[in-house]
Amino acid sequence: MRCLQVSNQDLEERIPSYEELEKLENEEAGDRPKWDNKAQYMLTIVGFCVGLGNVWRFPYLCQSHGGGAFMIPFLILLVLEGVPLLHLEFAIGQRLRKGSVGVWSAIHPYLTGIGIGSMCVSFLVSLYYNTIMAWVMWYFFNSFQETLPWSQCPVNANMTGLVSECERSSPVDYYWYRETLNTTPDIDNTGGLQWWMVLCHVSAWALLFICISRGIETTGKAVYITSTLPYAVLTIFLIRGLTLKGSLNGVKFLFTPDMNELMNPTTWLDAGAQVFYSFSLAFGGLLSFSSYNSVHNNCEQDAVIISIVNGATAVYAATVIYTIIGFRATEKFDDCISGNILTLLNTFDLPEGNVTENNYDQVLHSLNGTYPEVIQGLNLKTCDLNSFLSEGVEGTGLAFIVFTEAITKMPVSPVWSVLFFIMLFCLGLSSMFGNIEGVLVPLQDLGVFPKSWPKEAIAGTTCVLCCLVGLIFVQGSGNYWLSLFDSYGGSIPLLIIAFCEMVGVVYLYGIDRFNDDIEFMIGHKPNLFWQITWRFVSPAIMFVIFVFYFITKVQETPMYKAWNPESENFPTLEEKEYPSWIFAIIFILAGIPGLSVPLTAIYKCLRNRCCKKDNEFKQDDLNTILSSVWNLKNSIACKVTQWHK
Amino acid sequence: MVSKTLNAPNGYKVRISLKTALGEDAYEWNQSEMFFFQATMAFAMRRHFQMETYNVDNIILCVQTSRVSFWFVVTSPDNTTMLIPKADVEKAVRMSRHRINNAFLLSDRTLEFLGIYPTLAAPVNPDTPPWLIVFGVVIGAVCVGIIALLISSLLQKRRKEKGMTEDGQDEEDMQVKGVENGINLDGTYNRGFTDDDRFTKL
Known about the structure:
A: two-stranded antiparallel ribbon, B: alpha+beta, four-stranded antiparallel sheet, 5 helices, rod-shaped, signal (chain B), Collectrin-like domain-containing protein (chain B), transmembrane (chain B), membrane (chain B), phosphoprotein (chain B)
């Protein structure tokens, strides 16, 4: 594929050669940090990849796209898209031994924009991701009470009844929207800073700072807990869940395959997007972490193992979540039926036990035959188990509304609540390590901070800055800002960057050189599968997903769901259009990281042309002469001392 | 048969759900239980008014169904044709609601007086919200962690500086003796070839 490779002069001067790498490896020289052991590296990567998305996005996708049938596109795209991209990032990071900005400027100065784009995306995602951590911490703090505060509605001011907003919706909804977020009815009202959320926000950033203050020295220790605890808690929940009534309904609902969904292109798109975002590709964090590895680490094996672990965790978490959801749905269904039965008993003065769940339909039918007007007047609710099972089960709604409600119905609720929120916190914190790595290392590479500053100061300044900017998300309208950042900042730019990464490595760096590098590092050349996926399949999939995503986002009018007690359909969320000034924000979120790739290239190109090229050449020649003289001096020195032996 | 609403302006309908409340241990509702109810209501009326002597005969029950539900009215002890107004009966029931419930091993939900809504429990407001306590613990630990971190990094820095100055002296001595790569050499070391400035700046 020589014809497709762009000529890349001076590449050898920007990247360490094989001899230099061997020297670094053997003499352990160089000031780059290193992993204490392989387990730390693997746990950090697993922690970065396995995040909140595995718990609250994948189960929803699985259930809404045909259950067990969703596994097919998910697994296919995992193999064709996830694993190759992962291997690529691991290998290039390990080979070039720099953070994202360093790697891309080494491959070609014009590609520095990819690194900068990664840094911008990591920064934007870190901002809002840690607010979710703050929410988790708030719920965690409130779990240490005998009756969980979201299990019942509070009494209103004159103690005549329950608070109206709570009565019309539900205790968990009220607790989430009013007592936690204190949401405003629309994004224009900022609602001011919510002091309790500010406290949680600050504590989330402070905790993060402790863990990342010395880079992988501290995160390497933290991941022993943050990456393993979620698995332990998931297992505990699985065991607890399977002993609850109705859990198997949930699991059946999750995995019942509907093969017709495979014909729907949205299913494949969603599967591709999920694989992509789940692997935290294009954030720059994976590149950084791999660059701390030893040169001969088997990155191919790592990529395969991590992919399997990530996929398996997603399926495992989905199972656990759905046992609990099945339990909650069954409880709600039972309550609904009991309510109807009670109404019937009261209206017709029938003795208790006459109408049970089993003969409910029969009795209703016969009563409807004899007294149809009365039955109509009763307004009996229709109880459908499937509708309870498919209720709002993704994103924050799953964790803070549905799951918390399920926990209140379990015996010894505070224990389960504490465990659940610790698990969510660990999942999120380990992902934050990767996000922050993708911000700190490029900042260091770009020389934004003075070299004399210690690591702790750099980490501290970044955390303080992010904490202050993140205060947008703890206002009354914070939730709306967060979903805005999530949909536009954390989606399209990543696709662009990942696509540029693949093209950059395969066609600018050179796939042949890359193959040789991998042979040097792990001992054998990558086989045909990698060649085909790197060169054609994975970039094509990325491109298709990007185009579809872009078209969908551009075509639809951006809407958001607001919690408005005054709206007609309360407690259903009200769909509102974004105000026009939001489009400027959307452009900043999605446009700047994405456009940084071409813009930086143009900037560098212009700067190159501006400075006189002759001078540069003279400088280069002079440097070459000096370094050869230097080498000569050193060899003479060696010979002199040897002669003296 | 659809339940009737009596035109009884001074009466209350009572509904009892034994099976919901007690499940397996539910007792049978029979005439003795009805008598017990009359006695309890008489007690409630006595307790409220404190002067008049209400008796079991003053509580009149009617329209008993198998649900179990029935209506009752209260007559004045002095004049059996005169009914006690609804409001007074309500006050009496509210006052002794807890005792009435406990007499039958039931609760507000399972022993319903239709029209008399249960008073809501006053919310328990602890002095410090419990979450602040947990927050305080966590933030305290975080602060301790940050201070420990800063102290340890300062100590590390000092040790490095100390070690560097000591090492520096050792290196000079070694260089005078001509030790290179751990091998003792007899010759004098030519300082012209030391690695002090790797690149001389132009």
